[in-house]
Amino acid sequence: MIERSLSPLDRLLVEIGRALETVSVAKPVASQPSPAGDLADPALDEPARRHAAGLMRVNHVGEVCAQALYFGQAAVAREAPLRGQMLAAAAEETDHLAWCGERLEELGSRPSLLNPLWYAGAWAIGAGAGLVGDRVSLGFVVETERQVEAHLGEHLATLPAGDERSRAIVRRMKDDEARHAEHALAAGAIALPAPIPALMRFASSVMKAVAYRI
Fold first, then answer.
1. More exposed terminus of the chain, fewer Cβ within 10 Å: N or C?
2. Greater pLDDT, 26 or 43
3. In angstroms, rounded to a whole number, what is the distance separating the alpha carbons of residues 76 and 204?
4. Helical residues (DSSP H) of the chain, grouped into ranges
5. Who contacts 77 (Cβ-Cβ below 8 Å, separation ≥6)?
6. How far apart are the first and last CA of the chain?
7. For residue 2, is pLDDT > 60?
8. Which of 190, 65, 68 is nearest to 132 (CA)?
9. Which residues are within 8 A (CB) of 89 and not within 5 positions of it... i.e. 6 or more apart?
């Protein structure tokens, strides 16, 4: 397939459209059914429901950020195959976003009110990593997905007992994120300098603390 050459204005409009779609549609249409399937929705007491909703809101924010990161990286990718890889990963993250949005709705809660801010910051970080170079951009994917995989593992351990609907979604997301990291490694990712992963972990901890509540 031959890529259509877009003008700078076209590219700007595409990115604006992607941003608006991501932050304004809490529960986009998924290409695959939710891993929660027909699992029973447990009767949670109020503290457990709020905790599950807080964790799923954090995960929803994580998927908003994942969309933004991949779109930012794709926007500045030097090579067409890498751009395609980033856009394919973003499409898969749309499923995650839909599943998290659906679960939030079931829990009687809502996405983070700060999603536009999370998206803008993540897009800028993704584009910045991409501008440094494709292999650095891939390295950023690897580190991001490893950190996301770790925090999803924490959520599996701390979700309320019996909330198998949330747990099934988180487990599937964890597997997918690990696969994204493997693909980035296979495509030539390089390890990021030592201070960067630490800064990423700090930024992630701030995001999780805020998104859990707001």
1. N
2. 43
3. 23
4. 8-24, 46-76, 80-106, 115-132, 134-158, 164-186, 195-213
5. 83, 86, 130, 134, 137
6. 43
7. no
8. 190
9. 66, 70, 141, 180, 183
Calculated CA dihedral for residues 11, 13, 18, 24, nearest 10 degrees: 170
Cβ-contact 168, 44 below 8 angstroms: no
Whose tokens are 């009687």? That residue is 108
**Residue 101 contacts residue 27 (beta carbons within 8 Å):** yes
pLDDT in tens, 161-170: 889 999 999 9
3-state secondary structure of 210: helix
Residue 42's CB is within 10 A of a number of other CB atoms, namely: 15
pTM given for the model: 0.85
139 token code pair: 């390295």
Instruction: Give the burial class of 109: count Cβ atoms within 10 A of its Cβ; 0-12 exposed, 13-18 middle, 19 or more buried.
Output: middle
The two three-digit tokens of residue 95, written as one number: 């499923």
Please write down the long-range contacts of 35-39, taking CB distance under 8 Å and 24 or more positions apart.
35/99, 35/168, 35/169, 35/171, 35/172, 36/99, 36/102, 36/103, 36/164, 36/165, 36/166, 36/168, 36/169, 37/168, 39/164, 39/165, 39/168
Name the residue type at position 103: R
**Cα–Cα distance measured from residue 109 to residue 55, given in angstroms and rounded to the nearest whole number:** 11
Nearest to 160 by CA among 38, 34, 35, 54: 54
Per residue in 94-132, pLDDT tens?
A: 888 899 999 999 999 999 988 888 888 888 888 888 888
pLDDT exceeds cutoff 70 at 85: yes
